[in-house]
## 1
Amino acid sequence: MTIKGKIHSFETFGTLDGPGIRFVIFMEGCPLRCLYCHNVDMLDMKDYKDMTPEQLFKKIIPYKTYFQSSGGGVTLSGGDPIMQPNFVVKFFTLCKQEGIHTTIDTSCFTTKETLDRLIPVTDLWMISLKHFNETKHLKLTGQSNKPILENIRYLSKKKANIRFRYMVLPGWTDTFFNLRALKKFLKTVRFKLIELLPYHTHGIYKWEHLGLKYKLKGTKPPSENSIRKIKKMLEKEGWKVMINE
Ligand code: SF4
């Protein structure tokens, strides 16, 4: 059977989604429904182009010299590419055969079987951590955080290369209790870097355009001071922290 991926869009010279210059592919679908999602137009598998892994590979190969000179590669983002594992495995396998660095940007809400298939062909896992309180996680994303945290521990055990992304959402993820839980969790896993993502409101227009209610309306982005404080607090533990705006 031919494998086809549901692709929403591309970004040819991305610099925010992994190391170096990257070809970023936004895939359709996501198992979560985060209240702040800025790609809400990619969640429902409605607006996409079907592509085979080979077709996508042909599209990225002209950029190989840029990847090589910058230490970059390809990033599958979305939505969440983990919803289309057959496509990801095949596409990343083609990339690895050409020596191209592969990154997946994911929530990690999936099964161990899927992780096992992805581990050998994924150079970097960029995993977004949402909330450590189960009730709040459910409210914020529509799903439990248990399989996510378990999967991260599993990836860590398998020595996967992990980079965390942590959205600083005032009143939700910047609280004392959540930051304490974040630190506690981070001490139990292996990772290379934490990216702090200050909450922003740039994606609200997409919610309005789709006629969806944006429940976080009125929530303001965090202050520079609060981001700096969180960064310092994490750096104190000896972790590498970067602010990704
Ligand atoms: S995991 Fe990412 S793409 Fe999925 S709903 Fe949350 S913010 Fe949106």
## 2
Amino acid sequence: MYSLRELFKIGNGPSSSHTMGPKEAALEFLRRNPDCDFIEVYLYGSLALTGKGHLTDYIIERTILPTRCQIIMDPIKDVPHPNTLDFIGYKNHEKIAEMRVYSIGGGAIKIEGDVERIKDEIYQLNKFSDISSYCKKNNINIPSYVDSIENEDFNNYMEQIYNVMMESIERGLNTPGILPGRLMVKRKANYLYNQPEIDNDNSEKLRRNIISYAYAVSEENASGGLIVTAPTCGAAGVLPAIVKYSVDLNKYTHKEIIDALKVAGLIGNLVKKNGSISGAEAGCQAEVGTACSMAAAYLCQLEGASFERISSAAEIALEHHLGLTCDPIEGYVQIPCIERNAVAALRALDAAKLSGYLNNADSKISFDLVVETMLDTGRDLNYEYRETSKGGLAKKYK
Ligand code: SF4
């Protein structure tokens, strides 16, 4: 597995695979071909079907400027990956370069013909079961294991991740108005956060705050604000909502919170390696399901839970998202995405609690198994339900 830096990325929404990945691809094409005076960019598959709502064309044009560029959306062409782009560069009307890129989720890209970056896979253990056995044998916990693999500057990186998460909540809570796009969706984080107290019920308030935080980040994401992919832009609200909830509890040190974020990151990385974090590849179970799993593991780490309980919480959170489709209306990462982040944050809380109640009693399904199942399920999902905006709510909503 690659560094957790490749999972937790700071960038602008609304979509890691539809904006961050294509932006990186355009930058790479420009780096390799600085002499082009005109560039054609073909978007295929999900990028063509939902690229408008996800602002893919806008971000590519803006990145390529001042070089002239034309974007061609082709949803029909048969391509090897649902998020495929072709760049064709010209100089004086003559073709001088071409590059095929796959936006594989979480802002990461793969360039056709490039040698796989196997050497950059700094984590040699790729299963939770192997990592927990290694940690037990060496008497270390998961954050120490992560520290032993990442470089010495990693803690500073995680501080930035934490700060951007908290800032996106703050901005989202304080920004009323309407989200960009034709759906005219009202921002609700501020409204939800400022609801009057119900009978001084503190647990009710904590849950409502979690919902508000998830809305805050997701609304920031939907309006192109700065967020952290956790593991993607579309699912960026779940983990920060739970992190802020844990900060509000005032029970944990800052170091404990950063350590728990490392555990969440490792869980996300395992799904990225063995399953998928791309809605276009495996539906929303891969995005919001993974985010829920990461948040549940985060909570267990904070409570000082065993390896078994962390695994169990992550497994429960992902298992009950299996089969979840991706059907954003008109391709905007707004409906069902924003509300879904809030519900998943609450589910993370419940999954963490349930793992504690069960206390590993008769646990038959491991986290590693549910990750593999998620990928299989995603591949079996009808194409319409994998970020194409052709099925589900996107089809029914008028
Ligand atoms: S439905 Fe889920 S996977 Fe699809 S765009 Fe929304 S958050 Fe992403």
## 3
Amino acid sequence: MLVKLLVAGPLAVGKTTLIDAVSETKPWHTEETMTRAGADTDILAGVQDKTTTTVAIDFGRRTMDEDLVLYLFGTPGQKRFRLLWEDVSRGALGALVLVDSRRLGDSFEVMNMLEEQGLSYAVAVNTFPDSPDVPIDTLRVALDLAPTTPLVTCDARDTVSSLHALIALVKHLLLPSIPEVSPC
Ligand SMILES: Nc1nc2c(ncn2[C@@H]2O[C@H](COP(=O)(O)OP(=O)(O)O)[C@@H](O)[C@H]2O)c(=O)[nH]1
Ligand SMILES: [Mg+2]
């Protein structure tokens, strides 16, 4: 089975990093150097080192087992790419929403877009060195997630950790009756 999934989230949350970490093919990216023109719209509080931004999509592929191959599309988190985002999301089964716990509110827009499109999602909190140590249940409340929406933590740079996040999503999409996996 071939499954198309989105890896969605705001700027600099780790979408490209996660796809790099799990893809068995050389990931395909479109990144552009950020310019002054985007300075007022791309809010970079806490991520000042970021010098590129995804203006279109990332693409990677991951074989989970002989029956399941994931096609991963990293989708731009900025509102001005919404039309492109809707195109990329066509045919997707669901999405992994990446969240940075230092700026939770930045992920609401992507979750709203997914809900408007009727796409199911799981949420993965990508941990950065200075991320606050917030209990997962507190994050669930702060993100206003439905009780059935999987919520895990991950390190997008780490293949196993990122795969755990994707597995939580795939279980949610394909095997909704199975209990959610524990946070990785
Ligand atoms: N410490 C840490 N840094 C990360 C992690 N994920 C991404 N980064 C870094 O954060 C920056 C933004 O990541 P990127 O994947 O480009 O974000 P994107 O805009 O969502 O595609 C890059 O410099 C990454 O190396 C993580 O889990 N931990
Ligand atoms: Mg990117």
